[in-house]
Amino acid sequence: MGDHSHGSPNTSGTVATAGQDGEEKFRNPGLPPHRPRLADTNPQAEKRAEKQVAALFVISIIGTLVFFIGYFGIKLEGGHTIADIRVQNLLLGLGTAFAMLGIGVGIVHWAKTLMPDHEVTEERHEIRPEEDRVIAEKMVGDIIEETGIKRRPLIRNTLLGAMVLAPLPAIAVFRDLGPLPGDTLRHTMWADGVHLTRDPSGTRIKASDVTLGSAFHVIPEGLNESEHKLEEKAKAVVLLMRLDPESLNPSPGREDWNVDGIVAYSKICTHVGCPVALYEQHTHHLLCPCHQSTFDLTQECKVIFGPAVHPLPQLPIAVDEDGYLIATSDFHEPVGPSYWERG
């Protein structure tokens, strides 16, 4: 066996060991030498890069306009075909994609080709509020100057146009998600004399149909013919149950809101609006499957467990001369999540 003392890691100098001078073995290499880009040395390349950035911002603007052509230009109300829907979806998708892609790639290309790319390091200094404010102002000024936005009006103007138009498709899409706030949730299709009907068939319900312990999913009569069926159903859907009248504890003024133990409550959870659909007959509890909020029917759907903070709104009901269940008014409070204003 030969002598390996000169080639071992501990003696060859390739590995630092305890006792060795770390500063001597591992010196700070410093920053690599700066390599100028083509746009830094060639005015024509700089101008070309500027036009490319502006072109990308223009693509973003065109994408937004394509979105609005699909959104407003193609009407889907009555007589539309599946081809119309496909064309609209294509325009909406491509318009949104190019609107976001153009402005994103444009900013990246701008930074990589035209903004200063020198690496700098600074030592931390003591915190002095007034001096820091002056330094911060200078840094902001330097950043604005480095972007070159003041001396490149083509980029500045196209960027402003793209940034103004790019958020508009999102606003249009969010507007279509549902009704605006206000008193929208204070009014539903329920009113005095409106019959309670089964969901989804729309057939009327007699009081004699509701047996002890049973539960019905209920909608107002005429909902299936409504022009805004889904929007109205989301507010007006009701759970109908029958309990022993002796187990009810109505508050003053609500003694006649039930019919021989038959009660009707909004199906929309007052937490975040999930549909309450689980009824425990033996405990008289209604459960929301989303976050397990639990409401007690014997206490006017008071919350006894879970994150909901408001009871389910009760629908006052009565019986018409033919024995069918009817509402005597709309809900007396807004339906839905508790973050809406409640009177």
TrEMBL record:
One of its GO terms (cellular component) is plasma membrane. It is a multi-pass membrane protein. SUPFAM superfamilies: ISP domain. Residues 1-46 are annotated as: Disordered. CDD domains: Rieske (cd03467). The keyword Cytoplasm does not apply. Keywords: 2Fe-2S, Cell membrane, Disulfide bond, Electron transport, Iron, Iron-sulfur, Membrane, Metal-binding, Oxidoreductase, Respiratory chain, Transmembrane, Transmembrane helix, Transport. It is found in: Cell membrane. Residues 7-17 have a biased composition (Polar residues). GO terms for molecular function: 2 iron, 2 sulfur cluster binding; metal ion binding; monooxygenase activity; oxidoreductase activity, acting on paired donors, with incorporation or reduction of molecular oxygen. PANTHER family: CYTOCHROME B-C1 COMPLEX SUBUNIT RIESKE, MITOCHONDRIAL. Iron-sulfur subunit of the cytochrome bc1 complex, an essential component of the respiratory electron transport chain required for ATP synthesis. The bc1 complex catalyzes the oxidation of menaquinol and the reduction of cytochrome c in the respiratory chain. The bc1 complex operates through a Q-cycle mechanism that couples electron transfer to generation of the proton gradient that drives ATP synthesis. This is Cytochrome bc1 complex Rieske iron-sulfur subunit. It comes from Arthrobacter sunyaminii. The lineage of its organism: Bacteria, Bacillati, Actinomycetota, Actinomycetes, Micrococcales.
